[in-house]
Design goal:
Elements (H helix, E strand, L loop, with lengths): L5 H31 L12 E3 L10 E3 L5 E2 L4 E11 L3 E10 L3 H4 L4 E13 L2 E11 L15 E2 L4
Antiparallel strand pairs: 1-2, 3-4, 4-5, 5-6, 6-7, 7-8
Length: 157
């Protein structure tokens, strides 16, 4: 068995300690950044949106806040939603939009859009948004759909 000299063992131990310190520093920095980042919490009294995504919720919907995907109407749905605002008056997200009105072009490549939910009202004792607007990035172009023309009703049950 070959013996390692004392200075070499010290250098190895110091290198290992520095690697551990660097790893801990990375973890601490990430944790600190996460703690410093603004937390987008939703207050208990803010509205829900009735989401009809998935077979189990198609008929009655599911009350959700900040869903990742959302059925806006029977013709339009949104996905990969990133919520910028969710309060007592409105909710605003950016994400991908597809619809029956663009299947030939947007089924495989969804359109980028800003979705706004608004006009909260009480339904069966639950406060829910009752309207939506969709603004496609770059404008509507050749897409002719009621869902893209200003404020539209959103299913509330």
């Amino acid at each position: 068995m070959k013996r390692t000299s004392t200075p070499r063992r010290h250098r190895t131990a110091i290198a290992a300690a520095l690697a551990c310190a660097a790893a801990l520093g990375t973890v601490a920095t990430a944790a600190g950044a996460q703690a410093a980042a603004p937390q987008h919490t939703v207050k208990a009294d803010t509205p829900y949106v009735m989401n009809h995504i998935g077979e189990e919720h198609a008929d009655k919907g599911k009350a959700e806040r900040k869903p990742e995907s959302l059925v806006l109407s029977e013709f339009t749905s949104a996905g990969d939603l990133h919520w910028k605002q969710w309060d007592n008056k409105k909710a605003v997200a950016t994400g991908d939009v597809t619809g029956m009105w663009c299947l030939d072009t947007c089924q495989d490549k969804p359109l980028k859009a800003t979705i706004t939910l608004s006009d909260p009202k009480s339904v069966h004792g639950k406060k829910v948004y009752s309207s939506f607007t969709v603004k496609l990035a770059g404008g509507n172009g050749a897409y002719d759909s009621v869902d893209l023309k200003g404020k539209q009703p959103l299913a509330t049950s």
